[in-house]
Design goal:
By secondary structure, the protein is mainly alpha-helical. The protein has three helices and no strands.
Amino acid sequence: MADPRRDETVIHPRGDKFWLLAALVFGLLVLPLLVYVTGAYVLGRYAGGGVAAFFGGYLLGLVTLRWDSWVLALGPLVIVASWRMLGRWDSSSRG
């Protein structure tokens, strides 16, 4: 009889693609807005204007290859990819 715990360790490529894409979209679109809202709440109004100016500056930073914009955009993707790799490594080391 198959071990029911073994099914949890099977790699599902579709699930990996979904979570990696979700993390990328979150990093590109949602996280910058959360950073803006948090900054406006903690530090006050954004000096460059409103949310549109902040998001425009963020997109300009991506285009001009500013490291801070790219860390914000790719941070969630790196975290999810690392989490998935650690999960695979942990499940393979269990046997």
